[in-house]
Amino acid sequence: MAKTDWELLGKIKRRIEVLGGLGNSTEWVQKDYDFLVFFIEERTGTSLSVSTVKRIWRNEYHRLPHISTLDTLAKFAFGTDWQTAKANQLDILPEPLLAKKPKGKFWRPRVKKLLFGLAGLILVLLGFLGLKSVVKNTPQSYEDVTFSLKKTVSGKVPNTVVFEYDIETVDADRFFLQQSWDESRRVEIFKGTKARTDIYYVPGYFTAKLMADERIIKQIPVHVTHDDWFIAARQPMSNIQTFGKGLWLKESYLGIDGSALHSKGIDINKDFQLAFYHVKDFGLNGDDFQLSTSFGMKPVEAFSCPSFNMHVQGVDGYYWIRIAHKGCESELELQFGNRFHDGKTEDLSMFGTPMYQWHDVTVSTANKEVSIQLDGENIFSSSYEKSIGQIMEISYFFYGIGAIDNVDLKDGDGLSVFADDFELER
Fold first, then answer.
1. What is the CATH number assigned to the segment(s) 146-224?
2. I need a surface site. Which of 12, 147, 212, 424 has the fewest CB within 10 A?
3. Considering only the top CATH level, what class is 230-420?
4. Do 146-224 and 230-420 agree at the fold level?
5. Which pLDDT tens digit goes with each residue over 125-139?
6. How confident is the model at residue 30 (pLDDT cuts 50, 70, 90)?
């Protein structure tokens, strides 16, 4: 890839990060990539896979991505195709022609005086700007900054959270409060104020951030719990629709159908995400547990690669396991704490299976070793270094219409700490 191509791709990526309010990509988690995929499709009408977006932002390409992908990114960033963006970027403005030197003996001393004067002025300005930059970039102590919260309800959503803060001692141009991983939920706050409220419509374990310019100066966990299962759909990721029990299927498993999605404005002929959450402190260490779940999916024309995702969220990280339709294994990814597995660079074909039938999946951890079973067969094992801590959320995400059953979360001794077979009247 030519240097100019690298530079243009980097410029496009930075502009997309700003437009999406996504911040530094080195700190992105799975949900950030999911959001970006939906955001790109919303703006351009073209869908890119999560794995493609990850490889581009993680600089894992050794050559240019496909031209159609480059066209989509350029359209998002600059409203034009890749070649046009490249041509505009590579246009070099001609240097201004040097003015002809006037004749006459008086010219040299007057010009010299002018040049010396300008040079002096420039030095003064540079000194001032340099001093200002030093002052601006001098590390600040944030010991006097306070950041806390209180929730207005317990075990329910929507839930209004009151954030209280003190930023009076911080030197910055602008201040922000970011509700969660989703940078579209960032709001500006100002000195002289002490509180800001926000509503959480979906349960989960989030990290709220107090920011000065682009610096995170304080962050605190926000555990929005829910007393029962919770179902939501996103189309695009920034648009959340929730489904009360009256819209749940009257079956011995948990799910909703196309008519329920349609009632909330979800077009099943376009990409959407369907999610099932159970959020509370399970009192269980993420390094020593076993989670089993049954899942199944219904055919939807819009999804040539339907997938099921199991998500276990801890206080310090998460596990993410993705299973997809047979033939779609290249799009898969797994994450265990700090360990990431990409179907583009690893053989994850064991996670491909016919999705339009019921399956059983189990993930187990012990001594920072993880193993996965699919339909009773051991298909994968790996290790990781970073613990996720206490388990605060289990959730399931479908790209397409899916359902879950027989959820069973056990401790390291095999004792069940949470189970639901959905047989009881709900």
1. 2.60.40
2. 424
3. mainly beta
4. no
5. 656 555 444 444 445
6. confident
